[in-house]
Amino acid sequence: MNDDAALEALEAFNDSDVGRRYPSAVKTFQDAWDRFTPFLAFPPELRRVIYTTNAIESLNYQLRKVTKSRGHFPNDAAAVKLLWLAICDIEDKRAREREKERGRPASQRNESPRV
Hints:
Layout: H1 3-15, H2 17-21, H3 23-31, H4 33-36, H5 44-51, H6 55-70, H7 76-101
């Protein structure tokens, strides 16, 4: 999508029922338009990395999800162990996703064992 197509999409959204219901959303984009449009110069794959949830926020969300389901821990070591195992699992999933995005078949992917 280029600048012109993005502006057309914003105008279409502004004219829609949702745009009329949430004019502050349109105003937010209009006020930040000069700061937003340079991102359209990047290829879509890179744009996705830039505008998707920050990796740190994503990790924090996933760790909160893991600890929330437990309720409480018998000691600090148990909490640290659970978080460490969760981070290992999250990183394994992310590594598999990166391999898929690179287009490598499963037979050629380098599966690293956990320590």
